[in-house]
Every structure is written in structure tokens, then in C-alpha cells.
Amino acid sequence: MKSDLKHIIEQTKKVDTKSNYISLIVMLPILGSEELRKVGIADNTLEKLINKIKELPIHEQSQMYLIKELKTVVDTIQLQNFINILLRMAKLCEEFDPSKIIDEYLGSIKGGKTLIRPTTQQNDIVRNYLNLSKKHIIFSGEVGIGDEMISLIEKQADIAVYAQDKFSANFVIAELRLMLKENIQKNMDPRSILMEGIIQHQADFVYNTPHFEVRFTDEEYKAMKKDKQNRYSYFGTTGKSHPEWSPVIASLHALNDTGKGAFYLPLSALTRSVSDKKIRERLIESDIIEAIVEFPKRLWTPQTSISTALVLINKNKTNKRRGLIQLINATKLGENSRVGTKLRPNEVEFLNHIIISGEEKKGVSTMLSISDIQEANLLPSSYIMDTTVAMRGYGELEIKLNELETVETVELQKIAQIYRGYNALPKTQANDGNFALVKIADIQGDRINGNDLTRYQVEGRTKVENYRMEQNDIVLSIRGQLKIAIFTSDREDVLLSQNFVGIRCSKQYDSEFIALYLQSPPIQFLLQSKMVGTTVVNLPIKDVKNVPIPIISIEKQRSIVQEYKHIEEGLQEQIKQLEEKRITNKTKAFTEMGLGKTFTKIMN
């Protein structure tokens, strides 16, 4: 099968390298072997095939789309080559079920961001949670290519499927695939869920396909603001650039009073502020979130590198789960390979068990009271952390943050001024600029190399005092790798860049003590656990402000630092001497090999 499908893919790529005309190829096996052969050997193949498309029980808009694709392909690769495709497909249909051919074909192509498909393991988790049976109504507000609906249906009969999505090739594919499912009621609509939902308060289950990195159209945004179905009045709407929650809210409107739903979201949607935060707050207040599963990284590779979570909704939670949200940190699960991460069968079984049972597992699952959720943060790894970590220089450690609670502390923001960095535009870089900026590359060890700082021309209304560095300020990188350093220069023309926060200690705290403390294993672990983001991780400044600092006298702080520096200097001298002995030992061996005169040390 694979060789035939590969040939078909290569032929359609000749039309357009960015498109495989997927929906047209998906349609072919639905016609069956006999019909494909009849069409292939007919004198008027194109006309016959167009008539067959018009007979399909799909939307007229979908029929016209397929006919347009057909004409484009035939015009480009010539009719004879397309007839070869028909005959190859006819041969496949003699050996395999149409659904199997379509699944194999869809798995063979690269659809990019427009064709994101959950893994079989993810669909298994959702199917087990929803537990579909006869007489049920299922709904998808974003049906995509139909993977989610088909995974739920399997061999089910006597159920009703309602699905919609904005019209595209994907919608056509979904409509064709659902055609093959017999003994079920199907109602599909080529409209965006954001414009209008096709059902209200009827569905037993909702399962949407993931749409990542997709923005609203202006038409959708305006429709949401004037929604006739009143779907956003309580939860609100998102902004244009990050719309992930809006289809969720719109789809929830389709659920009946005992309904359940499953939605994939990027991790950033679980922590993002402003409108997203309001939506999460309302969902928490409504007590309809039953569980959130944070998946391992690279689970969607090569489709996308975005890290995601599965949000499970239940409008009729059991008494023992009311007021609670089960958070599951599955980031350590999965088998990693060059092509991505895959959940193992036993791990899927494990996740199914703890989701249904509500069982708590150390380091993986917890039942969190909604009153304990901080800042509407729904990211499982913010609350469930693997406290066994490997840290450079220390080896493997067991971090015990609960022991930190026994220490008398104060929040960092109460003993230091914390300021943001300046976002300098590349075009303002100038060798004779009026200010220099500290960047990530300028951090060397725990010090800042102030000799070669990049200069910028900072003009206009920029309040440089908000970003100007002072001697003994601590800098903490908040993007990517955590770095900590102290600015020891007395220069007055240096600004902090946007990749850092600056920490200016009060007179009661020593900057060297704070910098050393921030490098400690528990605080490094704490800061790392607060990092958010997908492609590039960021440390929110609010989490920097809340770092607990031990209440110790300034004299004791300085004593700790002085003793540490004294011992560290001695250790560095010993390391230097040992390194010299190591080189001497090697040189001796090389000399005995007869190489003694082949190299000499140049004395400076």
C-alpha cells in the first residue's frame, strides 16, 4: 500500500509542492474499486468523475471544492497520469478497506500547522474518559479532518454526530471520512464555531481538534462581540492573537447539563494573563474542570513543537470531586526518539486509571482545591514537581521545599527594588550611542564583562532611570537559561536589557549574599518550576518578587559571604596548582615518548 500511496503523493505534488490535494485523494477510495475502474476506462473520465462527486452526500460547497481540485490536477499532470492514479487506487480498494487506505494516506503526508492530529494514545485517553455509548450526541466545534470524531465513534451505532468548522480542505476531508461511518446520524456545517454554534445545550460530549497558532479573522472577532447565542457573556472572549480559549467556550455552550468535553490547549493558555485569566477564573468558579493533563514535550513532533495539555470538562462532577481539579503532570512519561515522544501503552493505561479514579500519585497527580489555585494558574507542573533533579556540580538531589517553610523568610520584593530591562530596537544600535546595554552574552560566570558592552542611541521619552544599573545591582536572566551576576562597575551609562530583571538590595541586605542565595539548589529549583512558555521559556517577574529570602542580620550575611569567598579563593588556588601538576605529568609522559623537544612553552 505504501508504495502506491507514495506514487500518488508524488504525482499530486507536481501540481503544487505546498499542497497534495489531500481532499481529492481522500475522496477516491470512497468510490470503491469497481466505480474507479469504470471511471478510469470511460471515454469521458473527467465528466464521469465530476458526476460522481455531485452524487456524494456532502455539502454542495464541498462538492465544488473537490471538482475544482480535480480540474486543477488533471490540467497539470494530464488526464492519462490521473487515470493511473485512479487505477492504482482501484487496486488498493480491492485489498483494503477505504477507511484504512485513507488513514494510511493521511499518515503519509505532512500537513504542517493546518493538519495537526492527536496521537492514537491521546485519543485513547479521551475515549476512555468520555465513555461513549448508544443514543449519545457528540459534538465538535472544530472538527479538523475528523480524527477526533472518528476515534470516538469507532464501531458505535445509533448515535448522533454534530460537527462544524470554518470551510477548508480539512472540513471536506472530515465530511468524506464521516460518510463512511454507517448507522449514525451526521450533521455537519461549514461555519466557524465562533460565528454561530449549530446546536445548544444538547450534546453529551464535546471533543475538538487542536488548532494551534491560529488567529481570529476580523469577521469572527466581530461576531463574537455581538454573539446572538449569548455564549461569551459570562466567560468573556480572548484577544485576537491568542484565541485558544474562545472555541472552547463556544463549544461548551453545546453541552447539556451533564455533558463532558475534551480540549487541547498550549501550555501558555493555562497561565497567560488578561482576558485568558478571566476565562480561567470563571471556569474555576463554575467548577466544571475535572482534570488537566500536561503532556510531555515533543508529543506532537513533527507537526508542531508546541507543548500542550488536555483539559477535561465535566458539568456533572461526582460529589467527591466537586470543588477540586485533578492536575496531572505527565511530562516525565513517554518514550523519546529522534522523531518525537510517544506514550507507552502501560502509561496510557496508567493515565486512564488515575483520571477515572481520581487517584493521587506523588510527583504525577494531585486533587487540588479550587481555593488553592494561585492567580488562576492551571498548569499542572506549577503544583506537581518532580523533586528529584540533577544539578550541575551537585549530582542528583532530592529537593525538599517544605523544609524551606520552616525558615523565617520575607519576600524578595520587600527587601529589594526589582526593575525590568529596556527593550532596545536593533536599529538604535550605534557605536557612539549614549548608553550601553547588558545582554546575556555579557554574563561571564557570576560577573558582568563591562568592557565590550553594545551601545545604543536611546532618545525620546524613554525613562532611562527605570533601567539604569547601579553598582552592586544583581541581574537575573528571565528568558531561557537562568543566569545570575553582580554589576560591580561604577559606570552610569549602562542599562539593563529586556532579557533580565534587576535586583537592587536595601541597606539591610548584602547583594553578594542574595546572589549566592539565588544560586542555591532549592531556589534554582523553585525558579525553574515557575518558568512558562513553549518555544522560549520565561520567568514571570511576579515569581521573582515572591522568592522567599531568609531573615538574617546584615552582619551575619557578610560573614557568610566572606567565609565562602575565602574558602573559594583557596579552592581555586588548589585547582590551579593541581592543573599545573596535571600538565607537568602529561609533559613528562610526552618527553619519555621522545616528544620533549617538539614543543616549548612561550613565557609571557
From TrEMBL:
Residues 154-382 form the DNA methylase adenine-specific domain. It comes from the Bacteria. GO terms for biological process: DNA restriction-modification system. Keywords: Coiled coil, DNA-binding, Restriction system. Gene3D superfamilies: DNA methylase specificity domains, Vaccinia Virus protein VP39. Residues 405-577 form the Type I restriction modification DNA specificity domain. Residues 561-588 form a coiled coil. GO terms for molecular function: DNA binding; N-methyltransferase activity. PANTHER family: TYPE I RESTRICTION ENZYME MJAVIII SPECIFICITY SUBUNIT (PTHR30408:SF12), TYPE-1 RESTRICTION ENZYME ECOKI SPECIFICITY PROTEIN (PTHR30408). Belongs to the type-I restriction system S methylase family. This is EcoKI restriction-modification system protein HsdS. It comes from Oceanobacillus oncorhynchi.
